[in-house]
Amino acid sequence: MDNLQNDRAVMGDNNPPLIEPELLGQCKAKVSEFSAKATEWLELGEIQNGEQSGLLVDFITGALQVTKRIDEARVSAKRPYDDRAKAVQAAFAPMLDEIDRCVTRLKPMQAAWLRIEQARLDAGREEKRRAAEELRQQAEAAELMAKANNSIGGEIEAERLTKEADDMQKAADREVKAQAKSASGAGRTMSMRKIKVAKINNQNAVYMFFRDRIEVADILQRLANGAVRAGQVVPGTMVDEVESAA
Q: What's the whole-model pTM score?
């Protein structure tokens, strides 16, 4: 069974060309033909009489017709792939959406636990601060007593207590972030993080900040063009008519 062969199979059956070679060749030949003719027109430099003008009209019309036919061939050639791409998207999109929704719904639960855990850790740091302060007070009292009694041993003990209080204070000052670690070790550690977002409360002020950005100019130009073509009057603009051969 494993050695069965298809006697009709020929080279290329498993990887056919994306576009029919004959069709692609015809399109390329037609484009080359018009491109060469366009070069001749460009070398002419300028239209010298009405006959040439008429011929150029025919040439441009023919070129646009070729463009239309080539684009139709392009659309036809890629349609099967578009259909297949849509089918693939339709098959996978619902699954991706469902998983995404699962994560979106579950993340707040993890965030709530992390907030509780962070509160516990913060409370522990506060407790260490209080203990460090109490130990520091004991160290100060021990130092005073050692000096009063000229006790070398008491001075050493006071220094020990002071160092212990300092270490405890450093531990309390060290920020500890709540983390949710993977139970199996295969998942990534999760923690709370803060991201900055802008809440616009003065649109004009925001515009003034970004007004020199090229993206803003492009957006405004598109909006203004659409408005004047719809017959609207846009403050700060003047309507101009640009001539173009069509």
A: 0.51
CB-neighbour burial class of residue 166 (10 A; exposed 0-12, middle 13-18, buried 19+): middle
Cα separation of 43 and 50, whole Å?
A: 18
Place of tokens 């498993």: 14
Lowest-confidence segment of 12-16, 136-140, 167-171 by average pLDDT: 12-16
Name the CA dihedral angle for 38, 41, 47, 52, rounded to a multiple of 10 degrees: -80
Is 88 in the same domain as 57? Answer: yes
* pLDDT at 1 (0 to 100): 39
Cβ atoms of 137 and 169 within 8 Å: the answer is no
CB 29 within 8 A of CB 14: no
45 inside domain: yes
Inside any domain, residue 244: no
**Overall domain count for the chain:** 3
Q: What is the pLDDT of residues 33-68, one digit of tens each?
A: 999 999 999 999 899 999 999 999 999 999 999 999
- Does pLDDT of 202 surpass 80? yes
Tokens of residue 193, six digits: 């993080």
136, 169: one domain: yes
Q: Which domain holds residue 88?
A: 21-101
